[in-house]
Amino acid sequence: MSGKTVLVSGAGIAGSAVAFWLRRFGFVPTVVERSAAPRPGGHAVDLRGASKDVVERMGLLDAVRERALHERGMAMVDARGRRRAEMPAEAFDGRGAVAEIEILRGDLAEILVAATGDGVEYRYGDHITALEQDADGVRVRFASGREQRFDLVVGADGSHSAVRALVFGPEADHTHPLGAYTAHYSISAERATADGLDRDDWFVVHNAPGRRMVGTRPDRDGGVKAMYVLGADGVDEAVLRDPTAQRALLHERFAGMGWQTPALLAAMDTAEDFYFDAYTQVKMPTWVGGRVVLLGDAGYCPSPASGQGTNLALVGAYVLAGELAAAGGDPAGLAAYESAMREYVERNQKLMPGGVGAMIPKSAPAIRMGHLLNRVMMSRPLRPLAARAFAAEDPFTPRDYAAEPTSPTRCT
Ligand SMILES: Cc1cc2nc3c(=O)[nH]c(=O)nc-3n(C[C@H](O)[C@H](O)[C@H](O)COP(=O)(O)OP(=O)(O)OC[C@H]3O[C@@H](n4cnc5c(N)ncnc54)[C@H](O)[C@@H]3O)c2cc1C
Question: What is the share, in percent, of the chain residues with pLDDT greater than 70?
Fold first, then answer.
């Protein structure tokens, strides 16, 4: 099997993690990434349960811990900035809203790309335009004009996956919008200081009637990560293709909101890493189409509302490479990956009770009820019950592929 070539589309979390494992199991991976350079940015993502185990098996847990954020918990504030409820990180042993390990998405992607080493070729600024499969492989055409054959192709190109569109059909056939949009961007330490923004190492959120939430999380360098969630009602979907309209929408919807919202909105116009997308889940009857397979958000985006996207991407990458190695590189390994992951994915796509609606309640009484529920959950009599619910969240232990005799010798 050694030497089988695999093209991975997307150098995000899933793509770089699968390249790492494929290389370790003796494949020859090439990663093509549409962006001209590694994509920085993104908020804190959680590592918990199985994904923490996978990162440990990669030997990267120390590197991740070194870059981890030290968020003290999540707090809900009112329009005057008064704390209405809070959930300290230690309250549920790091299994609550703020996980034991929180790391900026961009930092995690950087660690993963660096860890893949010299054996993986990354091609930035290019993307797949056509795929043609036959019995022995896949002929791939790239936007750059290059053409090349690979034994297998992995679509790890995110929730708007181009590989999915080419092999499985249009995006709308597989995506389930959750009725909300999200936006986020970074504010530098200097700007945050100048604008008097709080930086107290908490994940702070403020809700206002009309399905609006604005929040801040600490950045690693003393800056602030701003985030918004808003109801999609009445918004033309065309906004998804127009960053100017996205900023205008946020200015309009969040105008007049209290707390630090005016300063956060003012900083948005000059933010370099502004990101806007719909809260959407990807659900597909299969992730395998011949010699092409989908991984991470491309095949089963659970949406940021679940907090599980990075977890599924890391675990899926390990299981995909492991099952392919166990199958000696035969495409049958793709189906084995799907059957090993399917139930776990479906479990992690389940949202908290109330779904996205609970994050962005419609009315002032519903917002107050959310604060009250949080305080009740944190109360002395109920905290142990809530802790048990959080502790049971992720009972999944992938096979130890690296230790199995079917796995080929490690590459060095
Ligand atoms: C810039 C950015 C910021 C994010 N911020 C957050 C956040 O704050 N919170 C959160 O919960 N989730 C965030 N996400 C999503 C989160 O990273 C994923 O849900 C999760 O980690 C699963 O990772 P993934 O690798 O499947 O997808 P992604 O991390 O989305 O990676 C997909 C990669 O594929 C690349 N790509 C896209 N189209 C093509 C193409 N046609 N050809 C080649 N490459 C392509 C993208 O540039 C990206 O590098 C963010 C994603 C990105 C890209």
Answer: 92
Query: pLDDT value at position 33?
Result: 97
Within 6 Å (CB) of ligand 1, which residues are found?
Answer: 9-15, 32-35, 39, 41-43, 45, 105, 127, 156-158, 162, 184, 275, 296-298, 304, 309-310, 313
* CB contact at 8 A, 367 and 84: no
Phi, psi of 342 (to 5 degrees): -55, -50
Q: What angle do CA 393, 396, 402 make, to 5 degrees?
A: 145
* CATH level 2 (architecture), domain 5-71+99-174+281-352+399-403: 3-Layer(bba) Sandwich (3.50)
Which of 31, 39, 124, 144 to mutate for ligand 1's pocket (most ligand atoms within 8 Å of CB)? Answer: 39
How far is 128 from 126, CA to CA, in rounded Å?
7
- Cα separation of 257 and 367, whole Å? 14
Quote the DSSP letter at residue 69. Answer: B
pLDDT at 91: 72
Q: How many CB atoms lie within 10 A of CB 12?
A: 27
Nearest CA to ligand 1 atom 48: 12
Cα–Cα distance, 363 to 214 (Å, whole number): 15
Instruction: Give, using CA atoms, the residue closest to atom 49 of ligand 1.
Output: 12
C-alpha 157 – ligand 1 centre gap (Å) = 7
- Summarised one tens digit per residue, pLDDT across range 270-326 is 998 999 999 999 999 999 999 999 999 999 999 988 888 999 999 999 999 999 999
pTM of the predicted model, to two decimals? 0.91
Ligand 1 atom with minimal separation from the 296 CA: 26
Which atom of ligand 1 is closest in space to residue 273's alpha carbon? 1
